[in-house]
From TrEMBL:
It comes from Pseudobutyrivibrio ruminis. The active site is at 9. The keyword Signal does not apply. Belongs to the MsrA Met sulfoxide reductase family. The lineage of its organism: Bacteria, Bacillati, Bacillota, Clostridia, Lachnospirales. The gene is msrA. This is Peptide methionine sulfoxide reductase MsrA. One of its GO terms (molecular function) is peptide-methionine (S)-S-oxide reductase activity.
Amino acid sequence: MKAYFAGGCFWCVTPIYKIYGVDSVVCGYSGGDEVAPTYEDVKAQKTGHRETIELTYEPENVTFDKLLDIYFANVDPFDGEGQYIDKGFSYTLAIYYKTEEEREIAASRISALEAESGQKVQVALEPFKSFYPAEEEHQDYYLKNPEAFEKELIESGRKTI
């Protein structure tokens, strides 16, 4: 199965899913109408796409509900401007659902988080339209550029020293 989450910088959210039994994580773009967007255009807010990850998983190993646990533990769901230092529409949060069951599960989680926190959750819940893989240099960035990745995590505020 596949799931699609926009969690801000796709470099930053990729490795955590691999720890929890996801078969693969592909960085890319979703949500907009432009065909085959580029990183430069998405980052410049020209396409209506968000940086998104495509998760391929086996439900017997990790459930959609568990994927949502991981997602909400690794984003700031109350920031409607982007994530950490990355601001702009392309860094805003979204769950792209493929089935009514996924939509219901995600909507329930969002409602529960709002009730628990007393704050409005800034996660778009949208039907999946398309996914375009990002350029190769963005795939597994944390493995290809470990020092730069570590610096990104710290400077963004996602990781404290």
